[in-house]
Amino acid sequence: MKHKSQIFVALDFPDAASAWPLVRRLNPDMCGLKVGKELFTSAGPEFVKRLVDEGFRVFLDLKFHDIPNTVAKAVRAAAELGVWMVNVHASGGRRMMEAARTALADFPEPPLLIGVTVLTSMTADDLAETGIAVEPADQVQRLARLAAVSGLDGVVCSAWEAEQLQAEFGRDFVLVTPGIRPLGSEQGDQRRIMTPEQAQALGIQVLVIGRPITQANDPMAALQAINHSLTL
Ligand SMILES: O=C(O)c1cc(=O)[nH]c(=O)n1[C@@H]1O[C@H](COP(=O)(O)O)[C@@H](O)[C@H]1O
Questions:
Q1: Which domains does the chain have, with CATH numbers?
Q2: What is the ipTM of this complex?
Q3: Which end of the chain is least crowded, N or C, by CB within 10 Å?
Q4: DSSP type of residue 2
């Protein structure tokens, strides 16, 4: 059977009131939902719990990056909300990621614990300015190795790095790829981008898509068109 990528819609809205009109029209069979820094900061854990209670798979994208003790406790708090997936920055290092893994040990159904590698908005030049003078793909690979040995379930990367990571870590290692742009949609601040169809053909498990859906004139039609293109 053809691999079907799961779409997670990035609910990058300023507050709950702006997000609900779209959420109300969605159902958990259509997509998962990602709550990131903007919406979480304004709408908080209650909003996340409501999505979980309505049966949505929720990706809590707060990209934790701090000392091991702090990240471990933050990841536990995320798990207590019942989210399906949570992420930390892999560049926080092995001890930080191991602490996060250990913090989830006593949850019967812990969320997937995912490491962010190199943000999809970054190019080699952006990386060089932070003192990392290597190609994004090499840095992604290095951080994915660290995430894997630290016991994480997968990584956030761009679709361009998928084949290299699948070859090294196999298909059970979960790849989450933002920077997904249907043909004709605006790139915005993203740099390492790919279409949904190309990303699905690579066997990527989770495609994160925000503005091409949420900023479309008709967000439901945009989501349906993408879902349809993935079933062809
Ligand atoms: O962890 C993420 O979700 C993430 C990692 C990354 O490298 N790049 C990235 O764009 N994201 C998130 O994915 C979403 C992409 O949104 P759009 O660019 O609007 O499709 C945003 O909510 C970002 O915060």
A1: 6-231 (3.20.20.70)
A2: 0.99
A3: N
A4: -
